[in-house]
## 1
Amino acid sequence: MKLDGVVSELKALRVSKGLTLDEVAKAAGWANASIPARIEARDSNPTLRSLQRYAEAVGARDFRLSLRSSSPTVLTFFNHAGGVGKTSAVRDIGYTLMQMGFRVLLIDADPQASLTRWLGAFNDIKLDDTLYSAVLGEEDDLRLPQPHHVYGMDLIPSQMGLAKVDLQLPGVMMGLTRLKEALVQSQGYDFILIDPPPSLGSLAALASIAATHLVVPVPTNNKGVEGIPTVMDAVKQFRRATPKLQLALFLVSQYDARTTVDQDSLVYLSERLKALAPVSTPLRLRPGAYKRAALQGQPIPVYEPSGKAAEEIQTVTTELLTALGVNVHVEK
Ligand SMILES: Nc1ncnc2c1ncn2[C@@H]1O[C@H](COP(=O)(O)OP(=O)(O)O)[C@@H](O)[C@H]1O
Ligand SMILES: [Mg+2]
C-alpha cells in the first residue's frame, strides 16, 4: 500500500493525456500549479485526499481501485492484559484513518463487546452478525457477515455468545487460522483493525494470527511494565503460525505526567522497547474525555474534535503510518 508508485502512475497519466499542471490545479480546485507540482516532485508529503483530488483531476477513475487491489493491512491491538487501552485505540485510530481517506473495517473480537457499544447502541446483535460465522459457521461458508456501518467505517460487531469460540475452537482442526482465511475474502479495505479480548485464549490468538501487524498498547504503570515479557512470549507463539507477523508499534497509553510512577515507567518502557519496535508518543490519561465519549457512543475525535485527546490520537496515528511505511500525513 505504498503511495510512491501511485504518484508516478498518476503523473504518467497526466502526461499521456497532455494535461498541464495548471489545468490539473484548476480541475482540482487548487489556487495554482505549485500543489500538483509538489505532489509530483514528492517534496511534499501529500494526504490521501490531495492524491484523490489529483487523481480525479487527471481522470484516473480507478485510482481508488488501484489502492484497493493491494491487500489490506490487518492491525490487531494485542495485549493479554485488560484495561490497557486496546478498545479505545481501535475505535479512535480506526476513525482517524477513515478521516484521512482510508477504508476501514473494525472487528470486535471481544465477547464483552465494548467496541460495539462504544460505537453506538447495538442491542440486538446476533451471533451470526459476529465473526463467529467466519470461524465456526457452516464448513463451506466460512465468511465474515455483512458489516454494520458506523461513523464512516465498517464494523463486525460482537456479543456475549462469541465467548463460545474460546470453548469450541480448540476442537477444530486448523481453527486458529480461520479468521486469517476469512479476511482474505474481505475486499475493499485499506486497514482492518481487530480488538481482541484481554486473554491468551483462542479468540486472542485467532485475532493475532489473522494480523499482518500487531500494535501493543502499554499503559505507563506497573501493569504495563510487568506485562511486557508475557506479551513478547505470546508474540513468539503467534509467529509460529504466522512467521511474518510484525510488531508495528508500542502504543503508550494512559500516561499521567503528574506521577513519578508514570514518569519512571515512560522512561523505562521507551528505553526497553525501542529495540523491538517504535514506541509512540504517549496518549495521556484523560478520564473525563474517555468516559464521556464512551457514554455518548462516539469516537474521541467525534465527541471532541478539537480537544487535546483527539490531537494526541492524530499524532499516534501518523506515527503508526510511519511505522508501517505509509507515506501520508494528517491534513490540518
Ligand atoms: N488515555 C486514557 N485516559 C483515560 N481513560 C482511558 C484512556 N484510555 C482508555 N481509558 C479508559 O480505560 C478503560 C480501559 O480502556 P479500554 O480501551 O477498554 O482497554 P482494553 O480494551 O485494553 O481493556 C476504559 O474505561 C477507557 O475508557
Ligand atoms: Mg477491550
Note: The mean pLDDT is 90.
## 2
Amino acid sequence: MSVTIRIVSNDTELKEIAELASEIWHECFVDIISEGQIDYMVGMFQSYNAMTRQIINEDYSYYAVRENDELCGYIGVKPEKDKRLFLSKLYLRKDKRGKGIASLMLKNVFDTAREYGNTEVYLTVNKHNDHAIAVYKKIGFKVIEETVKDIGCGYVMDDYIMSFAL
Ligand SMILES: CC(C)(COP(=O)(O)OP(=O)(O)OC[C@H]1O[C@@H](n2cnc3c(N)ncnc32)[C@H](O)[C@@H]1OP(=O)(O)O)[C@@H](O)C(=O)NCCC(=O)NCCS
C-alpha cells in the first residue's frame, strides 16, 4: 500500500475533492441526516466554490489522500487562535476504510498542528456518527462539549466537539 497525503495546490485537484466529498457524504450520512440536509451541507461546506472561499478567506488548507495515486480521501484544517488547530474535514471513501489509512491521516494532522506550533486539535462530529466517534476516541480525542448549531433553511448540526491534546 502506497499512501500519499499532500497539500492541494491547484483547482483541478480541488474540483476532484469536491466530487469525492459529494460521493462520500451521500453514502455515509444517509442514515444520519436527510438527503436535503446532505445536499445543503455539501453545497455550503464541501463544494468547489465553498472550499475555494475557505482557502482564500478563512486560512483553510486541504490535503489530498491518495492510495497508489488514486484519490480516496481528503483532510481540511484551519489554524485558530490560542494554539488550536480545527480539523474541519477527515473523509475516506468507503472501500478504503479499515486499512490503516485513517491513522496515517490523523498522524499527518498532528504533524501539521505541531509545525504550526499548536497544542490542541479539535473537531466537530455528528452525535450519531458512531464509527467516527469510536475512531476519534481510540486515537485519544475526548468529548469536551455538545453543540446544536443552526445552519439555516431549518437545518441544524447536532454535534460533539472533541479535542486532542498534543
Ligand atoms: C472517519 C474515517 C476517516 C475513519 O477511517 P476508517 O478507515 O474507517 O478508520 P479505521 O477503521 O482505520 O480506524 C482507525 C483506528 O480506529 C480504530 N477503530 C475503528 N473502529 C473502532 C471501534 N469501533 N472501537 C475502537 N477502535 C476502533 C481502528 O482499530 C484504528 O486504529 P489502529 O490504526 O490503531 O488499528 C472514515 O470512517 C470515514 O471517512 N467515514 C465517513 C466520513 C466521516 O464520518 N468522517 C468524519 C466526519 S467528523
Note: Residues 3-119 form a domain with the Aminopeptidase fold (CATH 3.40.630.30).
